[in-house]
Amino acid sequence: MCAIVVCAVAASLAHAADPYVFRYLDNALGFADKQGSLCNWWNADEKIVLDGETELPVRFLFTSSQRNVADGCLGHGWWFPLFESTVVQSDEGKVLMHAPGGFVFHLLQDAKNADKYASPDGLMEGRLLSGDGFEVKDHKGGWGFRFHKGRLQEAVTPTGDELRWIYEGTRVVKLTSKKKGDLITARYNQEGLLERFDLTQSKYWTQFGYTQYPLMAKVLEKAVPVRMVQSVGAVKAPGFDGRINYEPDTEAESLAMKVNYVSQATGKKLTENYSWDLNSGHILTDPSHTYTLTFPESVGAGPSKVVRTDAAGKSESYSYDTKTGVWEHLKKSGAVDRYHYVLTPGPNYGKVRRRDLLKAGSDSGFLKVYEASWDSAGRTLREIGENYSVTWQYGQDGSVVDCTVVDLTTGKRTSVTNMLKTIVP
User: Fold this and answer.
1) Exposed, middle or buried, 101 (CB in 10 Å: 0-12/13-18/19+)?
2) Domain boundaries of the chain, sorted by first residue
């Protein structure tokens, strides 16, 4: 496996699952994120090992819309979440936590206590502290984080280890563990751009080189350069050596990104080409697809849609309506998956309440293949699949007192209560 994995969706490396709060933002489709920007995650082949069950991912992101960090240590368009985790107030009553794994949590202000914040599902809770402090508690995974002046300073792991981010100015130079000492160290050039990081335990390292390209703006109906920006132009790690070029096209009003590297499997030189619109940041192409994007004029005015088409002319699409919570994936085969998400704030927020499937070539319309319901505490009451149903009942202490599975094909009922006495879905 090569030491740097370049992918639209983070690769599943041979490691333990990432902690909930260290997950990353999924793309909508291919290399397009939910806002239609080019979004390309790069994943180091090694993780930071805290204990037998806890490993932290080391990944960085290039996006055609700079919105995760204002002054990134990798230059324009890049974000290194582990070193650039912050909390920022996005608007009145909302704080965004740019988490160290690459996810962005939306924390909403409590209506009764202005110092308290929480994610819509209640799994992440934030609190304002005196002296420009802010703390976040992860109720799903058991992590705790403390920020100062918006920057991540400390974390407490579920097993009680204490992590500290050591800064020189605004740059992280070291991440340390109370139990294991130094975990990762970093070195910067005179301009404050990251030159190299080293994982202390595994001796894994990555080096960065930089190049410049012009930011463009439309003046008198013509794209012209406004200023030069620095961005990653080279990435080198054990088993990987890549070069990146950025090429503006003033006629097409687009910008191309070319990644050149040698395949570790074949030894051949490869080039990956990406491009996006200079004005909107919307993706135009990836190495094997072209993209067409449709977005409503205002939030909630209709679904957003991303369509990508391969060289053979076959298309697939993603669409999502923020008002209804309906997500659709049209596959190249012609089949359509439709998911209905819960949008009401509370323990069930973000869960799939129903899934419908339209089979390729079918004239019978969508078929319901999954449906679920929960109580106010977020516990599952009923699940219905294509050929089964499951119902749960709970005691006052939250334990399962009855769980019955029904085979919808034969009508056979099976009680599995004894197997699930201590399980609360």
Assistant:
1) buried
2) 4-287, 379-420
